[in-house]
Amino acid sequence: MFGIGKLAEHNVLERIKQGDEQMLVHLYKEHHTMVKNFILKNSGTVDAVDDIMQDSVIAVWKNVNKPNFLLQAKLSTYLMAIAKNLWFKELKKKSRFKLVDETNHLAGGSEEMNLNLDKALIVQLVQDMDETCRRLLSYFYFDGLSTKVIAEKLEFANANTVKSKKYQCFKKLQGTVLSKYSKEDLL
């Protein structure tokens, strides 16, 4: 890793898209401490940290290389959301789930950090949807566009079609959340 140092996020993403495997090591080293602290505070071991880190970095790598990938949060927030999701699933399997979020131990700004992590989880779920739903929900919820403008952008018949499709997409997203998470995961 000698010579890489601090890289701008867009450089990291571009190098991942180009297949630069050094970025796997860079992501691992850059975010290891953050993930380690979270896992150790939540019933984890050092061995678990390495497993979760590897799986998280691979997930980021795969997602960045998807044709419709659009990062709408900081890369560290996105990676951490993936790591938390993987760790929560692991804890749930072992049925000794006890969440002690590191944000509870920070002085000030914890509410903003929770919002960023929540947004990263939502972004990850939305990116797994089909392109029409992903774009529609992104335009509506993130860009704040009106249904009329969205209808024009997505070439829908009218604003009512957008409303109907938005409802269908939101129901799909809701179904995904309910199938992947339990009440304890989200509280």
Would you give an account of this structure?
By secondary structure, the protein is mainly alpha-helical. It has two domains: 1-109, RNA polymerase sigma factor, region 2, helix turn helix motif (Rna Polymerase Sigma Factor, Chain: A, Orthogonal Bundle), CATH 1.10.1740; 129-187. The protein contains nine helices and no strands. It has helices at 9-17, 22-41, 46-64, 75-94, 110-127, 131-142, 147-154, 159-180, 183-186.
Offer a few descriptive terms.
187 residues, mainly alpha, Rna Polymerase Sigma Factor, Chain: A, 2 domains, globular, disordered N terminus
Concise structural overview:
By secondary structure, the protein is mostly helical.
Corresponding CATH architecture of the largest domain: Orthogonal Bundle
**How would you characterize the largest beta sheet?**
none
Low-confidence stretches: 1-5, 96-117
First-residue to last-residue Cα separation: 39 Å
Write the layout of secondary structure elements.
Blueprint: H1 9-17, H2 22-41, H3 46-64, H4 75-94, H5 110-127, H6 131-142, H7 147-154, H8 159-180, H9 183-186
